[in-house]
Prior knowledge:
The protein is mostly helical. It has a domain at 13-85. Helices cover 56% and strands 0% of the residues. It contains 5 helices and no strands. Helix 1 packs antiparallel against helix 2. The radius of gyration is 19 Å and the shape is flat. The relative contact order is 0.13. The model has no long low-confidence stretch (mean pLDDT 83).
Amino acid sequence: MSAHGDVDMGHTVAGWTGTALALLGCTGAGAALCAAWVPGIWLGLGLVVVAGAVTWVLHLAGWGKPSGPRPRAEWDWRTRDTVARTGHAHCLGCRAAGPSRAAAAAPRPRPAELAGR
Length: 117
């Protein structure tokens, strides 16, 4: 049993990679700030931006997770998200990937909702 109880914490390849890169960028920017090396500050902050982009690309490639809890069988951080190629319905990252992915991920009305009209 973990300290957080029996919940899906969302540990994924995309999450771990982005966190590691952002940590390196913040550490580098902080060290450069202490050394008064202005280019190093910008390099560290640039690495933080790269971390966000890498995390987003890995999410789109299926190495992230959709919003909300996953089934217990998919909690391992190496589990790929097979739905990511078509996009997640309520995911800002998937909508930002372009209109074709956003259209594929858009929620569609159920047949029962169409019959009620």
